[in-house]
Amino acid sequence: MAAALWDQLSQWEEKGAGPEQLTAGTGRSCRAAMASGGEEPASSPLDWADASLDCCSPDQAEAGAAMLDSREDFEVLDDDEEDLSELPPLEDVGKGKAPPGKEGVQASGPEPAGEGAGEEPPAAEEWLDVLGNGLLKKKTLVPGRGMESRPSKGQVVTVRLRVMLEDGSVVEEDPGLTFTLGDCDVLQALDLCTQLLEMGETALITSDAKYCYGPQGRSPGIPPNTALTLEVELLAVQDAPDLELLGGKAKIDLANCKRERGNFYYQQADYVLAINSYDIALRVIGSSSKVNFSPEEEAELLEVKVKCLNNLAASQLKLDHYEAALKSCTLVLEHQPENIKALFRKGKVLAQQGEYSQAIPILKAALKLEPSNKTIHAEVSKLVKKHADQKTVETEMYRKMLGNPSPGSTPVKCKDKSPWSIPWKWLFGATAVALGGVALSVVIAARN
């Protein structure tokens, strides 16, 4: 099972998560989105750090989504000139490092209860080093129903959760937290260790801050760089809903839930996991369906798709993935040609690539749609100046290649030049005329 955990981490790495980019985070359940009929279940009493991330209530999710999307977009529009070049490494903005190589992983998960009477007591008492680096450990308190009852990545699980500080004080508690394994919907420590739980098992998990809330912590209650202890009981496991059978409202809720998670990671400056969440949301939206949607649901799905693509482009820009960001912006403009945010980001991507002649018209189109936007004004002015400087440099380079002096340079006059001296240009012209006359005479003589 530990090998499966590494497979999960490897998939995050394929999206650009290097050893310093796999980070911690907190999440809420996607219960409303997971319900096949799209009905809203009872909300959890847990007061999470950001109420706008609560996907249990569709109304709250919708309001929070609008707030986060707007806040994120204008944050990007307010970037200064050196924003991308001065972006610190992710571990410096609240994220931890990834575990070491796979050679440190345990060969197997914890010894299942009930297999070998002589080994059962040690299995319930010993700590399992989940990733082999000593920073994430699990100990069984109450044995479960056997290894065959363990959940797998992609399934939807419900757990009872208590989160405690090292002094034992409880900072979070949820009697029924539901999430999808492997989708980065919750703390990494919880996501990874839940895959090692057996049905009905209660376990204690100790985790370093890098797999929880990292250097940023969470206000209130969890200081920066705080190791946490989690008490988890696996209550239920079920397969993820069939996307083809989801109704319009259920699909919209699920996509919004993943998008909200991406917004959370974006605000935490963890752009790799933000990209992962936006990708999942786009896969949900783009999945085929055997259910007919109403025109209103189709329009809302398109709106969610555009938001995901816009925020995906913003995250890709933060990681200097210019080609990917350009593709995301282009997809937005295919649906909404006058989307100001997509126009701005596409212009910014082209500017980063040095394509000022293409970037300036796109930014001017955005400025025409929103003339009062000072950020676009400043960006256009900056690019016009850079484009002029670029043309000057190119012109000077071409002159040097052709051996022509610069127009600004003053020709040096020869002091001892005789007033009767013939300019070389005249001399060259006279010679050319003489040679032409001789050649003409030869041709006429040959014809005669």
Oligomeric category: single chain
Shape type = elongated
The counted number of beta strands is: 6
Widest sheet, order of strands:
1-2-5-6-3-4
Average pLDDT, to the nearest integer? 74
β-strand percent reads: 5-15%
Give the termini distance in whole angstroms.
101 Å
- Structural class computed from helices and strand pairing: alpha+beta
Binned, the helix content reads 40-55%
Description:
- The protein is α+β, with helices and mostly antiparallel strands and 448 residues long.
- A hairpin with a 5-residue loop joins strand 3 and strand 4.
- Helix 3 packs across helix 6, helix 6 packs antiparallel against helix 7 and helix 8 runs antiparallel to helix 9.
- The protein starts with a helix and ends with a helix.
Task: Name its key features.
6-stranded antiparallel sheet, 10% strand, alpha+beta, 448 residues, 13 helices
Outline:
Helix 6 (248-267) runs antiparallel to helix 7. Helix content is 46%, strand content 10%.
Write the layout of secondary structure elements.
Elements: H1 2-14, H2 31-34, H3 58-77, H4 120-125, E1 128-129, E2 136-142, E3 156-164, E4 170-180, H5 188-194, E5 202-207, E6 228-238, H6 248-267, H7 271-286, H8 295-318, H9 322-335, H10 340-352, H11 356-369, H12 374-402, H13 424-447
Antiparallel strand pairs: 1-2, 2-5, 3-4, 3-6, 5-6
